[in-house]
Amino acid sequence: MSFSTLVSDLHFRDNANDGASRASRPSARSTTGSNARSYASTAATSVSVSGDISSQLHGGYSHPLARSWQAERQLTKSMLIYPLFISDQDEEEALIPSLPNQHRRGINKLVPHLEPLVRKGLRSVILFGVPMAPNVKDALGTAADDPEGPVIQSIRLLRARFPSLFIVADVCLCEYTSHGHCGILRDDGSLNNTLSVDRISDVAMAYAEAGAHCVAPSDMNDGRIRAIKLKLIEAGIAHKVVLMSYSAKFSGCMYGPFRDAAGSCPSFGDRKCYQLPPGGRGLARRAIHRDIGEGADIIMVKPASSYLDIISDAKEIGKDMPIAAYQVSGEFAMIHAAAAAGVFDIKTMAFESTEGILRAGATIVVSYFTPQFLDWLSS
């Protein structure tokens, strides 16, 4: 029965009964209202019963707490990893113009920055070294595992000052090579995969031996997960170091602010021959299968918001594994730009975009919003 039919029927019944029973009713207005409510209730019930009662959903999320119960995964502080750019200039604290509210910091600025965040519940950081000294970059990225370099020094400092903080070290050469690519090059400018894997795995070992809880190779060279795992086993530390692979890292235009922060823009060409093409869903699935088979403990997808289907695929393929997603610098900057233009509230969108990542299947999110989430999740 439609609503208009219900109203017409009520009006007809009220008029028909008006003359016959006016004298016998103590209050015609109240009784008419009662009859209408009773009839409407009966009619609504009959409509639901005659149809599919499972279609009645609104009651299940009418209350804010009930709405939160509808989420398969809810964002918690322990899911967040906070990216840090560590300069080799000990006193530096420089704002990154293209990456809102983010800084490049020297080692002497790390502890004051992190102390309040750890008190608020920060559980994990990921470290990116940024060599700023002149002539420190070379073709082999030798500064990447320098014991006096920013990453290894930061690992040791943070382990000592924040014993409960989980430290992830990004493993790549692009910040340290003079050419800005993620490995060692052949004479023709192409990537030498064999030499690159050997070098990348050495850098990962240096970070692990310095005390990193997790090493995260982001270079996308074939076979680097197996090489790192074997070296961890040979060194007798595979049992205490997490290996998180950037398995599905796509090439594209979303990394600009990060490259400004890390000084890692290629001096020529691009990374399309080793990072995945944006349409390469099948390639991503093959890479995920490969890295799981080579010993990865965690699978990462990067970027996140434009690749929710890949996050879902990663969860399907690695159903018994944690799945990480990196909401990259371009995603973060776009949200800030749109909020500044009045398109939406930044807090609302930060949550909505992150909840989409979790809904797709991620259980770990690398996010520049982490400091704000620590406050928002506490309030």
UniProtKB/TrEMBL annotation:
<keyword id="KW-0479">Metal-binding</keyword>
<feature type="region of interest" description="Disordered">
    <location>
        <begin position="14"/>
        <end position="39"/>
    </location>
</feature>
<feature type="binding site">
    <location>
        <position position="329"/>
    </location>
    <ligand>
        <name>5-aminolevulinate 2</name>
    </ligand>
</feature>
<dbReference type="Pfam" id="PF00490">
    <property type="entry name" value="ALAD"/>
</dbReference>
<keyword id="KW-0862">Zinc</keyword>
<feature type="binding site">
    <location>
        <position position="182"/>
    </location>
    <ligand>
        <name>Zn(2+)</name>
    </ligand>
</feature>
<feature type="binding site">
    <location>
        <position position="271"/>
    </location>
    <ligand>
        <name>5-aminolevulinate 1</name>
    </ligand>
</feature>
<keyword id="KW-0627">Porphyrin biosynthesis</keyword>
<dbReference type="InterPro" id="IPR030656">
    <property type="entry name" value="ALAD_AS"/>
</dbReference>
<dbReference type="InterPro" id="IPR001731">
    <property type="entry name" value="ALAD"/>
</dbReference>
<keyword id="KW-0456">Lyase</keyword>
<dbReference type="GO" id="GO:0008270">
    <property type="term" value="F:zinc ion binding"/>
</dbReference>
<feature type="binding site">
    <location>
        <position position="368"/>
    </location>
    <ligand>
        <name>5-aminolevulinate 2</name>
    </ligand>
</feature>
<feature type="active site" description="Schiff-base intermediate with substrate">
    <location>
        <position position="249"/>
    </location>
</feature>
<comment type="pathway">
    <text>Porphyrin-containing compound metabolism; protoporphyrin-IX biosynthesis; coproporphyrinogen-III from 5-aminolevulinate: step 1/4.</text>
</comment>
<feature type="active site" description="Schiff-base intermediate with substrate">
    <location>
        <position position="302"/>
    </location>
</feature>
<feature type="binding site">
    <location>
        <position position="259"/>
    </location>
    <ligand>
        <name>5-aminolevulinate 1</name>
    </ligand>
</feature>
<comment type="function">
    <text>Catalyzes an early step in the biosynthesis of tetrapyrroles. Binds two molecules of 5-aminolevulinate per subunit, each at a distinct site, and catalyzes their condensation to form porphobilinogen.</text>
</comment>
<dbReference type="GO" id="GO:0005829">
    <property type="term" value="C:cytosol"/>
</dbReference>
<dbReference type="GO" id="GO:0004655">
    <property type="term" value="F:porphobilinogen synthase activity"/>
</dbReference>
<feature type="compositionally biased region" description="Low complexity">
    <location>
        <begin position="19"/>
        <end position="39"/>
    </location>
</feature>
<feature type="binding site">
    <location>
        <position position="172"/>
    </location>
    <ligand>
        <name>Zn(2+)</name>
    </ligand>
</feature>
<dbReference type="InterPro" id="IPR013785">
    <property type="entry name" value="Aldolase_TIM"/>
</dbReference>
<dbReference type="GO" id="GO:0006783">
    <property type="term" value="P:heme biosynthetic process"/>
</dbReference>
<comment type="similarity">
    <text>Belongs to the ALAD family.</text>
</comment>
<feature type="binding site">
    <location>
        <position position="174"/>
    </location>
    <ligand>
        <name>Zn(2+)</name>
    </ligand>
</feature>
<protein>
    <recommendedName>
        <fullName>Delta-aminolevulinic acid dehydratase</fullName>
        <ecNumber>4.2.1.24</ecNumber>
    </recommendedName>
</protein>
<comment type="subunit">
    <text>Homooctamer.</text>
</comment>
<keyword id="KW-0350">Heme biosynthesis</keyword>
